[in-house]
Structures are given as structure tokens and as C-alpha cells.
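sorry for the late reply, my laptop died twice this morning and i had to redo everyting from scratch. anyway the thing you sent over, i finally got around to it. pasting the sequence first so we're on the same page, its 367 residues, then the predicted structure underneath. double check i copied it right bc i was rushing
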Amino acid sequence: MKEIKAIVEAYHKIDFTKNKAALATVVRVEGSSYRRTGARMLIVDSGEWIGGISGGCLEGDALKKAKFAMVQNKATVVTYDTTDDDPYQIGVGLGCNGIIDVLLAPLDSQNISNQVLTLQNCVDSRQPNIIITVTNIKGNLKKIQLGQAYKYDSEIDFSLNFISENLLIDINNCLQSEKSKTKIYPYQDGEVTVFIEVIIPTTHLIIFGENYDIYPMVKLAKEVGWKVSVMCNPLKVHKLLFELADNVLEKDKSEEIEIDPYTVALLMAHDYETDFKNMRNLLKTSIKFIGMLGPKKRTDKMFLKLSEEGNSVLAEDLARIATPVGLDIGASNPEEIAISIIAEIKTFFTGRTGQRLKFREGAIYEE
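ok and here's the structure:
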């Protein structure tokens, strides 16, 4: 989501009376690649770009081809084959050993449904969104064009009605798995290929605390593109926090924070009674991840107290409580601790183990 936000922001700074722009999107990957489907790059005909479709090796060529697409005002799909031994093939020296399809779509600033403005509608959403992009057309299908993008809102766009039944099934499957897919739909004497992209809401991190160690936590979380709210005494924090965090709220007003499946909480008060109260309140919510600093014996004491109050911690609650929070990387200072905590939260949402990649069996990215 961070890349999408940056692209939307940059798009609105373009003077379309003087410049043209295009959006490059990775719509299919076969084998290995540095970026996966959904990676994007906004390209301006002045030579500027933001975002990326690879590790830096394909961007230059994509820039040249995007300029050509702008001149023609016609979308095109470019295939980069890094499995080819041809020394003249762009990207052959990467060693990624994959095939990458990149859609280059000129942007019409007068079209309120162009690709960037369609993405903009997903930026602040707190539920998964589906973007359907046409990536290949075979046969005579005049009602749609290559590069068209649609935001799915419970109904299939009228121009895709001819494949609506099968498309709807695939959309629901993608939403359930939270994985994007490229699908081909036959139609009479032709076929249409669409990229069904699932855009997941950004992680919302709620930090309960006001000590000095929350600042690197907030900075790093914002750097990776998360939304951050801090529950504290606003009179006791540095004014910098109001610039760093999305929200700074009174610590006794946690009910003002909306909790959804992409919200996580981090207890960093370093005060037993405060952390206990926040833990007790959070366990009454549907929040999926509660992280807390401190040794296990401190948490065990909290669990015992909850049990004595008649609120025994259930197995499903234990599954969502991470304490001590963070991966075991040997962190010792606030910055390193922030890295370990963000890494654990990331593994929680992706269902990964956090082990070293050299020991992972199979591909790094799941297909």
C-alpha cells in the first residue's frame, strides 16, 4: 500500500497540460523475480518515475517503452524473459530465472476511472479491495480495451458482463485467499485475460505507551507503510510524535480506535498496572494480535490475575497474545527491538515462520 500511496500522491503533482504519464504494473510472474504481481511504477514523459517493477534492472527499458506507449496513447504488455540465454534480452543478467509481464498503460487525466484514480479509491479502505485489469485480448471484443481497470464493488462492471459468472467465482476465491490471480476467460471466437488483484488494507498498529522507545517503533512502522496510532498522555510526549504518527490519542479513549482484521496492538507502557488494564480491555475486542514487552513471568502474573477475576485466558486468546513480543534476533536497543517486533507482526499476517530464507524449502514467494 505504501507504493500505491506514493504513486497517487505523485500523480496529483503532475501538470498534465505539459506532461504525459503512464503506469507500469507487473501483471504476471512465472518463476522467480525481485518484485511480484501488483508492483507498480508511475512514469512521466520527462523521465521521472516513482515505484518499481524490479530491483532496478528493468526500469530503464520500461521507461523507454512507456514513452512510446504515451505517444501512441495505447496500452501494451511487455514481457521480460530472464530465463533466456540471449545476451541481448533485457534482464538476462539478473539471474532471477523468471518471466515477467508488465502492463504499460497511458494515463488520461480526464478519465476519472484511469488506473491511478481507481487505485486511489482503495487507499483508505479498511477492507480488502479487488482491482480487475484487462491484460490481454484475443478476438473481436470492442466493449473493452487493454489496460482498462475496474474496482469491484459487489457488482461486475457492465463491460465485463460477458464473463461475469466465472469472474465472480474467481473474485470470491481471491478475496478468500487474499491472493491475486491472472485468469483467462474464453469468449466465442476469442478470449480475455484479466489480472484480479487483491489490495489488502495497510496494517494499523496501535501503540499503548509514551516512553522514549516508542519513537523508533513509530518511525520504522511508518517507514514500512503502516498506519500508526499512539495511545498516551499527549502532554507527556514530544511534539515530534504528532508529526510521525497518524493519530495521537488520550490513553483512556481507546474506544475511539476502530479495530478491524488488519489492526494490531502493542503494549509498551512499561508499567504493570497500565499494561494489565490495556491487556484486559483488548481481550474483550476482536483484535487478532496483542504484543507486549517484558518477560513471560510478568505475563503469567497477568493471566493469573485475570483468572482470579473470573476472566480466564482461553486458548484462542493465547494464540493472539505475543509476549515477549518480537523475533529472536538478539535485539538490545529500541531500534533493534522495533525491527524484531515489526518482523513478528509481518510473519503473523503472512503466515510465515520468520526463519532464515537460506533454510526455506521451495520458492521465497508463494504462487
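The first strand starts at residue 21 and ends at 31.
thats about all i looked at so far, will dig more tmrw
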